[in-house]
Amino acid sequence: MNLIDVYIYEVTRRLPKKIRDDIRLELKSKIEDSLPDTYSELEVKDVLLKLGDPAELAASYQDISNHLIGPLVYDTYIRTIKLVIPWAIFITTLVQIIESIVFYTGEGALLSTIIKTISITIATIISVLFHVLFWVTIAFIVIERTGNFDNFKVHMPFLKDQQQWTPDDLKKVKIIANDKNIPLNDIVFSFLGIAIFSVVYFKANHLIGIYTSDERTGLKFVMPIFNQNTLLSYEPFILFCIVLSIGLTFYKWKVRQWTIPLAVINAFLQVVTTIVFILMARQPDLIHGPAIPYIAAIMETTASKVAFSIDRILLVIIAISIVANSIDIVNRFKKAKIKP
Q1: How many domains does one find in the chain?
Q2: Does residue 55 share a domain with residue 71?
Q3: How confident is the model at residue 117, as a pLDDT?
Q4: CA 54 to chain centre
């Protein structure tokens, strides 16, 4: 492993994209100028040790010393924020969901309750994030201004690399190309998507349907659109896809970059889910029987025309699903083959 390249990577990955290339060239030139024509690994380590912790060097390039958080604590500040915020969002969401379940009386449409819960959860998350950012920032300002950062670092067990930085730390670093990287937000949204799909699938007869609304009763569920028995006849296959999706997402969380094994599992999952979806969509009794004449009456047309339109819509969705999943499979393999 080239320690110089790894050191430059550790510095530039913390910088804004617009200045990365310039800093990369400048830093590489600076390091090479400090080394003899033929050099040993020990000499490289000495030069890198003089340059210091990549996090602090990156902070100095951004002139963070002119802001609230200086370069000495900036990297730890960012890592603390990244650690605390996901947990704050998770706990807030969990509390709101549990509260909604406990206080749900069964009155009114389930969809109305879900929409209300989502709205309250979003508002609460925004409030919590504001307080988290405010108090963490205040804490780091106080720590930096009072010079207690060294003592503070001892009490941060959940943050990695709290020891004094040395060039040997570079040997533990994995260089991940930007296009291969799997962002944390992708993983979070994957878990969220799995949860939403699971709820919608198993509660489709209470969520996906025809609704009416008036000022007195609000949103009222009339009847489901899909035949729940038909949907649940594919339950073993759906459960397999859900479990595989969860496993794939945890695997993505672990490796944090696209690899060939990961791309293969993803391709298998996409193929299986597409096949299950096509089989399900082509079931003649997928649509709840009374829903078609009800929709026809509302739209002032015939039931046969409504059934024909629904059939065409399902065909379009199937075609879009096949194309989208094929593109996703190809793109994931392309990312997996990118050299670091």
Answers
A1: 3
A2: no
A3: 82
A4: 27
